[in-house]
Every structure is written in C-alpha cells, then in structure tokens.
Amino acid sequence: MKRKIAIIGGGIVGASAAYYLSTLSGHEQLAVTLYDDGTGQATSAAAGIISPWLSKRRNKQWYQLAKDGASLLMQLAREANLATDVYAQTGTIITRTDPTDMSKLWELAKQRAAEDPDMGEIQQLTAEEVKEKIPLLSKGQPGVYVSGGARIDGAKFVDDLLTQASQVNLTVKHGKVTLDEAGHIVTPAGTKRFDQIIIAAGAWLPDLLAPLGMKVAVRPQKGQLIQLNVQDFQDYENMPVLMPEGERDVIPLGHGQLIVGATHDDEGKFDLSVTKEATQDLLGSAQRFVAGLTVDSIAEAKVGTRAYTEDHSPFFGRLPMHPKILVASGLGASGLTTGPLIGRLLAGTAIYGGKPDWSKYEKNLANYFS
Ligand SMILES: Cc1cc2nc3c(=O)[nH]c(=O)nc-3n(C[C@H](O)[C@H](O)[C@H](O)COP(=O)(O)OP(=O)(O)OC[C@H]3O[C@@H](n4cnc5c(N)ncnc54)[C@H](O)[C@@H]3O)c2cc1C
C-alpha cells in the first residue's frame, strides 16, 4: 500500500513540495493529491524578483533561508529543465542616489559575495553604466549589479512543477477544501483521510486551521502590479531587473514586455480589485524610468494576497498537537525566493519523518500559534 499524502495549496510552496515528493528518494512509495483553489494566489500575481543578498533586513534566519532559497532555485531550474521565460538569471541592479549609502551597499555586496559564490559577479556601476545594461531606461541611477540575481514567472513555474510531478505520483484537484475537527480533509466528494497533510495555503491558513481550534498569527496584505508593452524593445530578451531606491521595481521580461511592481496595501487585505490609485502609482514609477509610456501601454494588471506574520518571518513545520499535519505560511514579499526551499524541507519531512532542526531558518513554530 502506498502512503497517501495531501497538499492543500498550489502556490510556490505547495507546488515545490509536490515536485520534491515526486523526485526525492522514497517517492515510489507515495500517492500525492494536491488541492488548490487558486483565488488570490500570491505566487501567480508576483513580480518575480530573486535577489536577497543586498536586502536591508537584519533578520539572520530570514537571510539564511532566502540566500539558500535563491541557490536551491538555481539548482531546481537546471534539474527541472525550466525554460528562460520561467526562470532566467538576468542579474539584478540595486540603486542608491546618496554616495554614502552607495559605499555602504558596495561594502555589503563585497562581504556577501565573499560568503556566497551563488551571488555571482558583482560590479559597482555609474548611472550611465546602469543605462547600458538596461537600455530601455531613459534615466539611470548609480547602483550595484549582482549577476546571480534572477527573475521568475510564478504562474509558469508552478504549472511546470505540477505537470512534471503529475507524470510521477501526483493528482491535482481544483477547488476549495476544508478540514474537519479531527484534521481530515473535507472535499465536495466527501471526507478524505491521508497519512500526512501539508498545508501550504498562504494567507488562508487561519481559516483552514480554525476547525482544529487553532489561531494563527498571519495577516493578509494586498499587492498589485502592472505589465506594460515597450514597443521599441521587442528584440531584447535579457536585461537585468532594476530595484531602484524609493521607487517600484522594474522587471524587463524581454520581447518588449515589462513588469512594474508591486504595491503593499495592508488595508486591502483579501480585496482582489485593480484600483486606479495603485495603477497610477505604478505607472508613475514606470514613467520616471522609461520614456514614452502611457495608460495605453498597460497590457495587464495583477492582484494577489501576501501572508505576513508580526515579525515578517515565514514559519513552517509539523503541528505539535496534530503530528500528521505540516504547515507553512507568512512568506511575505520574498516567498518566490524562500518558497521552493520551504517546500523541499516539508516534502523531506513528510517522506522521512523525524524532527529536523530548522533553527537556522526560523523561530520556534509555537510563536505563531495560539
Ligand atoms: C504583487 C506581489 C508581488 C510579489 N513579488 C515578489 C517578488 O518579486 N519576489 C518574491 O520572492 N516574492 C514576491 N511576492 C511574494 C510571493 O509571491 C509570496 O510570498 C509567495 O508566492 C507565497 O507562496 P505560498 O505558496 O505560501 O502562497 P500562495 O501563492 O498564496 O498559494 C496559496 C494557495 O493556497 C490556496 N488555498 C488556500 N486555501 C485553500 C483551501 N481551503 N482549499 C484549497 N486551496 C486553498 C490558494 O488559493 C493559493 O492558490 C510577491 C507577492 C505579490 C502579491
């Protein structure tokens, strides 16, 4: 008899867990079912920047998780043979206008690059050199280039991983499910029992755990971005991602497409409407860097719901009171970077059991539950 494992949530954490449950040794003994509603999913609405090394955050556990996550993604992209429209190591440029801030950033870059070879080559660039690397910019700012930086298309990434896992041991079911008081999964086709359940439900984790009498300290945050057409740059495939100081990020997708994002709207919570104010704010940022953009250049707007904890740290692991259930949430604004590693750790634990020590990556899971 194969062991039955369920995953609730088909964002980057759930899809990565499904992928590793179909590739790690022991996968032959598993039958995996993934349930995903998809409404408001953060992963498919995300901007797609992978560049944790020069973050201003001082949280050491988060940095370790994000840096190891960026490295795992490089490996996963090769292993799963992902196309360049799914994951591309384009490099990233982080700008600073104040010379003192710039020299601090450069010192940090040198220190971090010495510690982590996957950060790749680093360069200090003048405003003109930034423009040379990203020709669609009408205005440059001095910055630091990091060749290990990448962009990822969350929706395509998830799709690719689920397709590959479906060829091995995964069944995907679309639609919303709930838990009953005993922790079994209630689906439209009845109550289902599994040997283990991985709940990767992002901002919706509190709803799912409510029937178990558990409260989770996770709050939703609305995020919006826009995708624009930049007609003159149809021939360009790879340009670095620009992370300008005090402005929205600019992510050239190649072939004359550009993403600008994203907003952070705590009041918006689970609201999925595209608002005029957010669109204006994003377009304004885009126009300050790229000439000739108008409202008509906007091809698409996306909205998703991020999950945040009080200390902005993700959490993941086995629920102490319900040992068959593993959870992850709170990935915030950097979940495309940390999600695949969290998915892999959860998949490994579901297969091999035990109580791994993840203290280098996260605080005690109990901090987030009451
Ligand atoms: C606008 C925006 C821009 C972003 N940009 C970046 C970026 O550039 N770089 C970066 O690293 N991160 C970025 N992020 C953050 C990143 O997208 C998230 O942290 C990450 O995708 C969270 O992944 P997840 O799998 O935990 O949750 P999600 O992707 O939200 O997936 C959770 C899934 O669970 C499903 N679900 C929930 N409840 C149920 C249920 N009861 N039954 C069935 N299914 C259920 C949901 O429908 C959803 O599909 C961005 C986010 C947003 C919104």
List the helices and strands and how they pair.
Layout: E1 3-8, H1 12-21, E2 30-36, E3 49-50, H2 60-79, E4 87-88, E5 92-95, H3 99-115, E6 122-125, H4 127-133, E7 143-146, E8 150-152, H5 154-166, E9 170-174, E10 178-179, E11 185-187, E12 190-192, E13 196-199, H6 205-209, E14 219-229, E15 241-243, E16 249-254, E17 257-261, H7 276-289, E18 298-308, E19 315-319, E20 322-329, H8 335-352
Description:
The protein has 8 helices and 20 strands. The strands form 5 sheets. The protein has a 6-stranded mixed β-sheet with strand order 9-2-1-13-20-19. A 4-stranded mixed β-sheet has the order 6-7-5-15. A 4-stranded antiparallel β-sheet has the order 16-17-14-18, covered by helices on one side. The chain has helices spanning 12-21, 60-79, 99-115, 127-133, 154-166, 205-209, 276-289, 335-352, and strands spanning 3-8, 30-36, 49-50, 87-88, 92-95, 122-125, 143-146, 150-152, 170-174, 178-179, 185-187, 190-192, 196-199, 219-229, 241-243, 249-254, 257-261, 298-308, 315-319, 322-329. The longest helix is centred in the first third of the chain and has 20 residues, at 60-79. Helix 1 runs parallel beside helix 5 (154-166). The protein has 2 domains: 3-44 and 155-218 and 311-368, FAD/NAD(P)-binding domain (3-Layer(bba) Sandwich); 92-147 and 220-305, 2-Layer Sandwich (D-Amino Acid Oxidase, Chain A, domain 2). With 370 residues, it is of the alpha/beta class. 47% of the residues are buried. Flavin-adenine dinucleotide binds at residues 8-14, 35-39, 41-43, 45-49, 154, 176-178, 200-202, 204, 208, 223, 225, 261-262, 304, 306, 331-337, 339.
